[in-house]
Amino acid sequence: MAAGCCGVKKQKLSSSPPSGSGGGGGASSSSHCSGESQCRAGELGLGGAGTRLNGLGGLAGGGSGSGCTLSPPQGCGGGGGGISLSPPPSCGVGTLLSTPAAATSSSPSLSPAASSSSPGSRKMVVSAEMCCFCFDVLYCHLYGYQQPRTPRFTNEPYPLFVTWKIGRDKRLRGCIGTFSAMNLHSGLREYTLTSALKDSRFPPMTRDELPRLFCSVSLLTNFEDVCNYLDWEVGVHGIRIEFINEKGSKRTATYLPEVAKEQGWDHIQTIDSLLRKGGYKAPITNEFRKTIKLTRYRSEKMTLSYAEYLAHRQHHHFQNGIGHPLPPYNHYS
């Protein structure tokens, strides 16, 4: 499933169904995948197997301006099979669904992130080179150059998101990802173009927008099913919820770890926002919240601006097999 990030405005939350809204349209066009502006990258909206939805739970193509779009990846084999997000047969304190160790989001850097989230934990996998590769893929596509060759960073399989923001205020420009583990080389190549060109909330990106872009890569780790819908930490965990809507259909929605903190939401506000974005229209009661199946997870994230990408590539021009001329530097407008 894929998800997208977005937004600048904060949502107004209410336990009552939004008036005149359909599906997940009750929220403003903001959520965050990359951590600075709202990243709708966290929302999964599945209307059924194979149905593509925007990241805040609405159907893709529905014109919703917020949330990350989530769609089943095309050919997401690439190595490690999918990560199971179904609840365990018996619910303990927390059931680990994936093996990679958790790590906190990293700040932008021009070298691979080598710091770990805590002493004794493994080093972070996400790196600035992954963001550079995404810029390479998008640049080559927009200018008609041959796609870059295989990058040097690890090709391990991970669930992932690629988020694009634009301008000084870092408005969401596209965000789509997958909760199925994909080999990073093919996964980042695929979702770079999917998030840049096929996010139904935005028109396809153009060459003129490149100099103002920011690219974020998020790798999702440490999936755990929990029994209590409040058993997660704001700013630390991303959450994916599964619920039965008023029509008896199963729905899902997700937010990446940074979304709730950036929006200033508490646990209840975040859950209620996800329910609305997932298309739940009935009044939200505490009893209904208790029926939610919740999976928490963590992520590693790296963000790079276009200017940082150019600076990096000027020193490592052929590192990823880039045989095209780099574009001239342009200041942000």
Question: Which properties best describe this structure?
Answer:
21% strand; 8-stranded mixed sheet; 19% helix; Glycoprotein, Type 4 Pilin; two-stranded antiparallel ribbon
What does this structure look like?
This is AMME syndrome candidate gene 1 protein isoform X1. It comes from Mustela putorius furo (European domestic ferret). This protein is α+β, with helices and mostly antiparallel strands and about 325 residues long. Among the domains are: about 130-220 and about 300-315, Glycoprotein, Type 4 Pilin (2-Layer Sandwich); about 230-290, no CATH class. About 20% of the residues lie in helices and about 20% in strands. The strands form two sheets. Strands 3, 4, 5, 6, 7, 8, 9 and 10 form an eight-stranded mixed β-sheet that branches. Strands 1-2 form a two-stranded antiparallel sheet. Helix 1 (about 130-145) packs across helix 2 (about 185-195). The longest helix has 16 residues, at about 130-145. It is elongated. The two termini are about 35 Å apart. Residues about 5-15, about 15-65, about 70-120 and about 330-333 have low confidence and may be disordered.
Q: Could you give a short description of this structure?
A:
This protein has 333 residues and is an alpha+beta fold.
CATH topology of the domain at 128-221 and 300-316: Glycoprotein, Type 4 Pilin
Radius of gyration: 19 Å
Count of DSSP H/I helices: 6
Shape: elongated
Class by helix and strand content? alpha+beta
Q: Indicate the percent of residues in helices.
A: 10-25%
Average pLDDT, all residues: 71
Spell the H/E element sequence. Answer: EEEEHEEHEEEHHHEH
Q: From the 3D coordinates, which CATH architecture of the domain at 128-221 and 300-316 would you assign?
A: 2-Layer Sandwich
Terminal Cα span = 34 Å
Region (Disordered): 1-39, 102-121
Domain AMMECR1: 119-313
Organism: Mustela putorius furo
InterPro entries: AMMECR1, AMMECR1_dom_sf, AMMECR1_domain, AMMECR1_N
